[in-house]
Structures are given as structure tokens and as C-alpha cells.
């Protein structure tokens, strides 16, 4: 058993795939008796909203494989190559890709982002919302879940300066 | 063949759960138990085989035994101080 560690995370992305790493690492670190704070900024900030509406986006994921969450095992295991022409231009692609990914996650026993966020709260992870992003995007404090603290760069850095692990996600 | 089960005070079935749920559920369960009690955890996630000893050594619990029973992984964890 080592000495008590701490972890500071910046969550800056708001798509479904990027919503997972901060909450997975934060909840697990808290379960490993670490003190954890996550600073939600820019596109990461909406992850603190009462209802998480994160979607998968093909933008910036040119190699994104598509998995089918139904059918025979070989069919499910196949990586469907989706041409960028299709993924970037067909209306509704994000909605379809999001629902397929959510279904695949569920089939594989992966928790939802909301479940992981709930566990972060239960395990004492401190979540900080970025004041500047709130001002820029026009968010109000009461749109976020209870227990969120609001702060700025200095609030995060004061904790991160002594943290054993610092991650930018 | 039925193996004789080790003695344990409580049991947690994490079958079907994927990373990091087995660790989170185990942590929450063991928090409700007394020091020295043994928790039997069943998991199907192969990642748990490495994650469980990493977690126990970090938080000061003792991984008394881990074994495979059919397609399941079974861990016996004694709660530390």
C-alpha cells in the first residue's frame, strides 16, 4: 500500500468517445484512494449538464471503424470501412453512429457515461466547471449537476501543481 | 468437478461487466464490510485479472487467491485496514 496519491484531469472534449476517458480514470483513481479533480473546459463542459447528450462524431476520426451491435459474431466483429464522403456528408450519420456505439457498449457490459459520472460523485471526485467557458457558451450554474464547483485556470493549477498525475484529455 | 469454495463473508457477481465496473463495484462493496472480512468476486472481464491485484495492492487489501472457474474469474479479497 503506497502513500496517498492525487490526479488532476482537464476534460476538454465533448464527444461520446472522448467523454469516457476522464470519467473512467477519475472513478477508478478514486476507487484506488486517490484524490481526484476534473476541470471541465470548452467542449468538455457540457459533460456536467444534468443530461449528457454527447454524440460520436466522424470529424477528426478519419479511421473510425463502425461496429454492428447485432447479428452473428463475425458480422459484429467486422470493422465497416465508412468512406469520409459518407460519414462527413450524410445527414443523420452522427445519430446513427452514436446509437450503434451506445448499443455496442451496452452489449459489452460497458457503463454509460452518466453511470460513470454518478460513480465519480459517489467516490468523491471533485468536478470543476470552467467559468470562462460558461460565459462564452452562455451556460448557467443551474444547468449543471449539484456539487459542481466553478473556477478558472488558477483553481485547477493550484491542485495540479501538487498532483502526482496530470492529464489533458 | 466442483472445487471446494474458500471461506468468505460476502460475494459480488460482476459477470458481464466491463472495465472499470468490476473494480468500482468491488470497491463499493468492500467499503460496507469489516476489516479482515473476505469478499468473493466473480468476473468475466479478462482485464480484471491484472486490474484486481493492481487495485488491492494500491489500497491495502489482500488478494488471498484468484482462480479461473470455467469461463469465470474468481477473486478472494481480504479487507485491509
Can you characterise this structure?
The complex is a heterodimer of chains A (169) and B (81). Chain A has 169 residues and is an alpha/beta fold. Chain A has a single domain (1-169), classed as DsrEFH-like (Hypothetical Protein Ychn, Chain: A, 3-Layer(aba) Sandwich), CATH 3.40.1260.10. Helices cover 40% and strands 14% of the residues of chain A. Chain A is built from 7 helices and 5 strands. Chain A has helices at 16-31, 73-77, 84-89, 93-107, 113-122, 131-137, 153-160; strands at 6-11, 35-40, 126-130, 149-151, 165-168. Chain A has a 5-stranded parallel beta sheet with strand order 4-3-2-1-5, with helices on both faces. In chain A, strand 3 (126-130), helix 6 and strand 4 (149-151) form a beta-alpha-beta unit. In chain A, helix 1 packs parallel to helix 5 (113-122). The mean pLDDT of chain A is 90. Chain B is α+β, with helices and mostly antiparallel strands and 81 residues long. Chain B has one domain (10-78): TusA-like domain (Translation Initiation Factor IF3). Helix content of chain B is 27%, strand content 32%. Chain B has helices spanning 21-30, 48-59; strands spanning 10-14, 38-43, 62-69, 72-78. Chain B has a 4-stranded mixed beta sheet, covered by helices on one side. Chain B is globular. Chains A and B meet through helix 1 of A and helix 1 and helix 2 of B.
List the main descriptive attributes of the protein structure presented here.
heterodimer; A: 169 residues; alpha/beta; Hypothetical Protein Ychn, Chain: A; five-stranded parallel β-sheet; globular; B: 81 residues; alpha+beta; Translation Initiation Factor IF3; 27% helix
Amino acid at each position: 500500500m503506497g502513500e496517498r496519491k492525487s490526479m488532476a484531469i482537464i476534460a476538454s472534449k465533448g464527444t461520446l468517445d472522448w467523454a469516457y476517458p476522464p470519467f473512467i480514470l477519475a472513478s477508478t483513481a478514486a476507487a484506488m484512494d486517490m484524490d481526484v479533480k476534473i476541470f471541465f473546459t470548452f467542449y468538455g463542459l457540457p459533460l456536467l449538464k444534468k443530461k449528457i447528450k454527447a454524440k460520436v462524431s466522424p470529424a477528426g476520426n478519419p479511421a473510425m471503424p463502425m461496429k454492428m451491435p447485432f447479428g452473428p459474431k463475425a458480422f459484429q466483429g467486422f470493422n465497416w470501412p465508412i468512406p469520409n464522403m459518407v460519414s462527413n456528408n450524410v445527414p443523420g450519420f452522427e445519430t446513427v453512429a452514436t446509437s450503434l456505439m451506445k448499443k455496442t457498449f451496452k452489449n459489452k457490459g460497458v457503463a454509460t457515461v452518466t453511470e460513470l459520472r454518478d460513480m465519480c460523485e459517489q467516490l468523491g471526485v471533485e468536478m470543476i466547471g470552467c467559468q470562462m467557458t460558461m460565459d462564452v457558451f452562455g451556460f448557467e450554474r443551474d444547468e449543471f449537476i449539484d456539487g459542481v464547483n466553478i473556477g478558472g485556470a488558477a483553481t485547477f493549477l493550484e491542485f495540479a501543481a501538487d498532483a502526482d498525475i496530470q492529464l489533458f484529455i | 468437478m466442483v472445487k471446494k469454495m474458500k471461506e468468505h463473508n460476502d460475494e459480488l457477481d460482476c459477470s458481464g461487466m466491463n472495465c472499470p465496473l468490476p473494480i468500482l463495484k468491488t470497491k463499493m462493496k468492500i467499503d460496507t464490510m469489516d476489516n479482515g472480512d473476505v469478499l468473493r468476486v466473480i468476473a468475466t472481464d479478462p482485464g480484471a485479472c491484472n486490474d484486481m491485484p493492481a487495485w488491492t495492492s494500491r489500497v491495502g487489501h489482500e488478494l488471498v487467491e484468484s482462480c479461473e472457474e470455467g469461463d469465470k474469474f474468481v477473486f478472494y479479497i481480504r479487507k485491509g485496514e
